[in-house]
Specification:
Layout (H helix, E strand, L loop, with lengths): L8 H12 L3 H13 L3 H25 L5 H9 L2 H34 L5 E2 L2 E2 L1 H19 L1 H30 L16 H10 L2 H5 L4 H4 L7 H30 L17 H8 L3 H35 L19 H16 L4 H26 L4 H15 L4 H24 L4 H20 L3 H15 L2 H9 L7 H4 L1
Antiparallel strand pairs: 1-2
Helix pairs in contact: 1-7, 1-11, 1-13, 2-8, 2-11, 3-8, 3-11, 3-15, 3-16, 4-5, 4-13, 4-15, 5-6, 5-13, 5-14, 5-15, 5-17, 6-13, 6-14, 7-11, 7-13, 12-13, 13-14, 15-16, 16-19, 17-18, 18-19
Length: 494
Amino acid sequence: MKQHKKVSLLSATAISATAMVGSGWLFSAQLNARLAGNYAFLAWFLAALLVLSVGLCLSQVVTIYPVRGATTRSSSLSHNAIFGMPFAFANWFGLVISVPTEAQATTEYLSSYLKNQILIDNNGLTLNGKLFALVILFFYLLVNFYGVRILARVNNTITVLKIFTPLFAITLFLITRFDTSNFHLLTNNTYNIGSAFSTIVGAGLIYSYNGFQLAAAFASEVKNPKRNVPLSMIISILLVMFVYMALQFSFMGAIPHSLLSQGWSGLNFHSPLMNLAILLGLNFLALLLTVDSVVSPSGTGYAYLGASSRMFYAMAAEGQMPKWTITKLNPLYNICRRSLLINWFIVAIILWNSQSWATLMLIVTGYYIIGYMAAPISMGALKPQFRYFGACVFLLLTLIIVTLPKHDLLLMNLSLFVIMSIYGCIQLTRKTSFKTLMILTMPFMIYLWLIYLHQEIFYISLVSILFYFFITHPSYVAFCQKHATEKVLLEEEL
């Protein structure tokens, strides 16, 4: 078999860091200030701690199975493909939905700079705006078409600019204007620690940090993945947390005090960082932010497209998607181009039927969190000595997901129920018994509806802990593994 060159720790870290400095940094500083006030900094720290915990769980799975699309396959590898289907779908679909949000963010910022309604109006993206965003998506496709080595080369260069621009903006905001009275508003008394907790979802903090898992998605293409995948996740999370907290600090200090008569909740810039730069007379920074509005979201967009295509390939390899959707990996570029093209067309359809960045961000976050739940579950099943740590991480994820608006949580539950119903019917045609199917699929679906119907903290904690220890119990894991379907291509990848 041809031995393909693999990416280094630096490149793996850059892929994750680049994905985390995407469209989120252009919008989240304002959203976080509006929803949490001075507790915005605590929100960034808590969100980083949460994704770091998930990353540590995922890295334990990767030490056993350093395979392509490990983020999507983890629960399939620890239990089986039927049990892992809702997590795999949520992880993959959440990432797919994220790709058009990056193209939308670029389009929105450029429209603000052009100061006209050619690309965007009050109703969202115009026809010209959607066509322009499709061109951006095509660029994402080209970067991924020639494999991870090309992606890494492009990405390493773009990472420098993506990290430089926020640091440059932070420095200019601090030098030009810093009003300490902004941190002593009377309205700040309306915020508390609970505000920081709920803001993790509401301000897009999970959305902003989500790229941390990309190193695991590329696990089979990273040198020494058992060491470099967890290291790249830890380094990238800490680096990006520092950038985001510094940006939050400089942004809140640079806002003219006269604009805060109604407190942080009254702040409503359309393109926050650019609007603030123009307001302060920093025209060069405004121009740089315009350039970065193309570079930062694009760096995240093409990385997410590459990761989602690998996840889709992994799902098909596990029997969770039709086998015709994949082919053997391209012998030269070590990528499944059919999977990449299918994902790109799905992304294009989602883009064409959505209006703006904000319309997708919350629902995307919900799918992210469900996908994250697979990591502590898989770790607890594969390494029982870490079950108590896994239970804590799983509980935190549940407490975060119930902060979603109930309408979004309902839509997410319904979508998973529909997908699992269709998938269950397919499994019945493959001679899976109805009883086995219910034992494998119903626990998680019942759990989701239980936390949707009643959201008192003690009740949720009890239900979550009981559910977690049930599905990671050795007897349940053994039952799942006994009924595991064939893991196609697993031996080849290992």
